[in-house]
Amino acid sequence: MENTKGKEIRMTRLSNRDEGFSLIECMVSMGVMLFLMASVFHVLGKYQRGYQNEQATTDMRQGARGAMELLSQEVGQAGYLGSTPTPRALSASVTGSSTDPQTVALSSTANLFPGEKLLVDTGAASEVVAVTSVSGTSVSGIFRKNHAQNVPVNTAGVFAQGVLLPPAPGQPTPNQLQIFGDINGDGILQYVEYTYDPAAGTLSRSITPYPDTVQGPARVLLRNLQPNPGGTDFFQYYLKPDNFGKTYRTEVTVTATTQTESPDPETKQYRTMTSSLVLTARNVLSARDLANNRLTDRIQTMTKTGNTCSWSILPAQFCTP
Q1: How would residue 312 be classed by pLDDT, with cut points 50, 70 and 90?
Q2: Could you give the CA distance from residue 97 to residue 142 in angstroms, rounded to a whole number?
Q3: Phi, psi of 175 (to 5 degrees)
Q4: What is the bridge-based pairing of β-strands 247-259 and 225-226?
Q5: Contact 303, 320 (CB under 8 A)
Q6: What pairs with residue 140 in β-bridges?
Q7: Of the residues 88, 121, 155, the one at which a domain ends
Q8: Domain coverage including residue 120
Q9: Both ends of the chain: CA-CA distance in Å?
Q10: Both 121 and 252 in a single domain?
Q11: Digit-coded pLDDT (tens) for 122-178
């Protein structure tokens, strides 16, 4: 009997030890857990806001860099005449005449325009012929030398007005850039127009291939643009005259201030970045050098009648009478 009672006493003591946590202990444990979880979520939230901020900044930088790279490539191509994808040749022999224009058939007249200067033939028989008109597969011009059938006809030279000059002295166009030439290097002339809209905070671009008569639609290239520090113009031009007084736009400085699409989650402020790039119009600079050396037969230009270019969508300043 004594042994049985001893066992019962020990069993009672053991059962008393397994009664669990008290209410106070549970509340303290939950408080500690809530504190730890709040700390974890606070840190996670901070990292998430930091990531969102960095992502917005990266998007802003990538957009600005992409626009600047495109501007650099296209200004570098401005004024470039390019060459035909396939060789061009005379379809028939030509007897030279010093004064009378002749209509001559070519294997291709694609992308030729009135005023263009063609290099006909090779060696001592070669000459530069200015095109007066283009019709079907034929061109008109003054051929001063005799040429056999199938001799090569090449394009050569650059456009002096690859970057459009201001309409008049003292009237710059700080919100617009107009360029012309074989912009994509594929033998097709293109007219490209960039427009900065300070009210909308956008930079848009349109491109039109020759000989389309309707300007291509403008598409937004860059958004969230802000006024530049100090009121700096978006486009600034460096005008450089040749030895004979003619002016060329040889450099373009582009300054753009972009802003993130959303504010910084921490500071509640928008982040901004100002980018500036000096672009050299290499082909326009080459045209100036040719003019200084009196090699004007390599300087290309489109003709115009009155104030209308032979390619009607071009501003009149691109063309010569």
Answers
A1: confident
A2: 7
A3: -110, 10
A4: antiparallel
A5: yes
A6: 103, 133
A7: 155
A8: 102-155
A9: 133
A10: no
A11: 999 999 999 999 999 999 999 999 999 999 999 888 999 899 865 555 455 689 999
Q: If residue 55 lies in a helix (H) or strand (E), which one and from where to where?
A: helix 23-77
Regarding whether 169 and 143 lie in a shared domain, the answer is no
Size of the chain, expressed as the number of residues it contains? 321
Q: How confident is residue 58, by pLDDT bands cut at 50, 70 and 90?
A: confident
Whether residues 309 and 167 share a domain: the answer is yes
Residue 46 is assigned to a structural domain of this protein: no
Q: How far apart are CA 153 and CA 126, in angstroms?
A: 9
Q: Is residue 306 part of a domain?
A: yes
Q: How far apart are CA 230 and CA 237, in angstroms?
A: 17
DSSP 109: -
pLDDT of residue 13: 54
Say if 20 falls within a structural domain.
no
187 in the same domain as 235:
yes
Count: domains in the chain: 2
Q: Which of the listed residues 128, 155, 182 is the one where a domain comes to its end?
A: 155
Buried b (16+ CB within 10 A) or exposed e, 66-105: ebbeebbebbbbbbbbbbbeeebbbeeebeeeeeebbebe
- pLDDT-derived band at 18, boundaries 50, 70, 90: low
Tokens 């290239």, residue located? 221
Task: Quote the CA–CA distance of 47 and 49 in Å, as a whole number.
Answer: 5
Q: Are residues 146 and 234 in the same domain?
A: no
